[in-house]
Design brief:
Blueprint lengths: L1 H22 L10 H46 L4 H21 L12 H12 L7 H28 L5 H19 L7 H26 L9 H9 L3
Helix pairs in contact: 1-7, 2-3, 2-5, 2-6, 2-7, 3-4, 3-8, 4-5, 6-7
Length: about 240
Amino acid sequence: MHAKRTELILLLVFVLVAVAFYFISFGGEDTDKIFITISTFFFSIFTGFFISRQGARYSKLREIISTFDGKLSSVYRASLNVSPQVQEATGKIIRAHYEKVLKNQSWEHHFSEETTVISSIHRTLEELIGSSKQESLRNQAVGRMLASLSDAQVLRKNMVMLYQERIPSFQWFLIVFFLVMLLMSISVIPSVGAILGSVLKAAFVTSLISIVIILKSLDNLHLFEGFIGENSAKDVLANIR
């Protein structure tokens, strides 16, 4: 829904800008092209670098979230080898966690302050097993569960680190500054009464705005439909009885 709304807005921007360029003159005939060259150069450097960086961050975070989900799924499956009671209690904890993730449409719930999925499973193991002696298979299953919980805690910390790697305000200011310079430079190119010139200028302006929108979506981790890790969260819930 968010992507479709953005596409409609960009289409509207394109049409309005094309009409404005066709009927309104924003500058003289002797526009100095050096401003377009300079602003294009700096805008492409800044946006290219940050899109590459935030794209790598987005991909890495998706990988970490899917691994985190896999670890909790592994915990649930291993709990069956301990006892049905442990599996039922573990399943309730994991299900409650992922239901909140999907309900709030927020993957940040994996590391938010109210999240207790890892500590709750630890307490469950302590309460239901404690220091009682376990058979070999059950002992190995408990070991796998504890190892997966330990890995999940490390992954959770990695999520926090990547989440905080956002584009700083000053760098956003530079991107917007060069975007405005470029838009102003394009606007003063004569195009009144010229359909092709107006359409090309409108297409260029819309493309520049689209680049900034893509960069903002990457920075907010909202590049595709739904929220990051949504399908993986649904898969975890589907595996819990």
